[in-house]
Amino acid sequence: MKQVYLDTFGCQMNVADTDRMELILFHSGYRRTLEKEDADLILVNTCSIREKAEQKIFSLFGGLKPLKMANPDLILGLTGCLGQQDGEKLLQRMPYLDFVMGPDQVDGIAQAVDRVRDTGKSFVWTGFDREKAYTIPELPMPKAPGPSTFVNIIKGCDKFCTFCVVPFTRGREKSREPDELYREIRQLVDHGAKEIILLGQNVNSYGKRGLHNPIPFHELLYGVAEIPGVERLRFTTSHPNDFTRDTIRAYRDIGILVNHLHLPVQSGNNEVLKAMRRDHTIEEYRDLLMELKSEVPDIALSTDIIVGFPGETGSAFEDTLKIMQEIGYSSSFMFAYSPRPGTPANELTDSVPEETKKQRLQETIALQNRLTAEQGLSYIGKNVEVLIEGRSSKPGYTFKGRTPQYWNVNIEGREGMKPGDTVSVKVEQVSGHSLNGPLAREANSKSSLHPSGA
Ligand code: SAH
Ligand code: SF4
Ligand code: F3S
User: What does the pLDDT read at residue 451?
Assistant: First the structure.
C-alpha cells in the first residue's frame, strides 16, 4: 500500500474532512502514516479563520518543500479553507505544490491525486456546486469509530458575520437528508460509537436548505435520540438567532441530550454585536440562556469571544467581561480580532492597537480561568458520570473521558474499564478544565434521563 501523511488545521469540520479523505484514500490503496518522510502523498487541510492560522500553514509548507525537492514523485496537496480563499495565489507562492482544493472537493480527493499522476501538471480545483445536494456516500470503514463521534449534518454558513471568512470558504448552507443521517448513525453505533456529536458551522439552521424531506433541527434531535445504542447526544456550533424554544424543550425532554451548550456570544456590547452583524442584542442572548438555565438547571455553557473588533471601546470591552461573569461560562475560546481578506469588517479601520487587543485577550483569559476554577472546585468530592474515550496522558492516570457537561476527566485505576464504558468517577482534584480522580465505589451507571440529577 502507498502511504499518505495528513495534517489538519482549524475546526472540527476540517477534522471530519480529513477523516473522510483518509477513508476515501484507503479505498484507493493508501494507508495513513505519521511520518512525512515515508509518505507518497502529503495533504495539508488548511484553515484561514485568523491570520495566525495562515502563518502556521505557510511555515509548515516551508518545511515540506525540501521533501518535494528531494523526491519529485511525492504528491503535495493543499486542501480546505485557505485553498478556497486563495486558490491560484497559492500555486504562485508555492510552485512546488501539486494541487490546491477547497472544502467542497473533499469527496474528489482520489480523482485529484489521479489527475496529478496522469498529467504531471499542478492545478487548482475549488468552488461550489449550488445545485448539488449535500450527501456523504457510505463507504466501508476499515477501523471502528471512537466512542465519541462527529456526524456532519449541515455544511456552509449563510450568516455572514462581518469578521468571518466561513461563508466564503464553505459556501451556502446545505443540510443532509435525515434518513441518510439516521442510517449513518445506526452504522456508527453498530461499530461501537456511544456518543454522537452533530456537527456544522450553524447546526440550528439544519433543515432550512437543501432537503427533499425538511425537518427542523429539534426534530432531528428527537429522531437521533430514538436510535437504539446512542447513549449521549451533543451538537456544535449554534448561533443564538436560530436557537429555538423547541430546542430548549428538547433539552428538557431528551434524556441523552447532554447538559452542555456552546453558544458563541462574540461580544457583550450591542454596538459591537451590530457591527459584527450578529443580529441580536445582548439582552436577547441573556434572556435565551436564562430561560435555558431555568429549564435545565445544571447545564454548562461555553462560548467564543472576539476582543478588539474595530471600534471596540474600553467600556464596550467591559461589557464582554460582564456577560462572561453573568453567564458563568465553563469554558471559552477567546480570540483577538484578525482582519480577513474579503470580509465586510476588513473595510473598517482595524482601530484597536495590537497591544490593547493582547491586553484585553489576557483579561478575558484570566477571567475565564477564574470562572472555570470556581466551577471546577464545586465538583470536588462529587461523583461525575464519564464516557471513557481513551488513554490518559496525565501521569498517574489511566483513562480519560468527558462528563455530560463536557469537562475532561482523568481517571485513576486499572480494573474494569475500557473506552466506550460509562463510569462514575469521584473528583478529588481539578486542573484547568479537567477533573481528576478514581472510579467511584458505587456501581457503574449508564445515562439516566437527566444524567446529572437535574
Ligand atoms: N460557526 C461558529 C464559529 C466559526 S469560527 C459560530 O458562528 O459560532 C470560530 C470562532 O472563531 C468564531 O466564533 C469567532 O469567535 C472566531 N473568529 C472568526 N473569525 C475571526 C476573526 N476574523 N478574528 C478573530 N476571531 C475570529
Ligand atoms: Fe462565521 Fe458567523 Fe457563520 Fe459562525 S455564524 S461561521 S461566525 S459567519
Ligand atoms: Fe478554519 Fe474553515 Fe473551520 S476557516 S475554522 S477550517 S470552517
Answer: 39
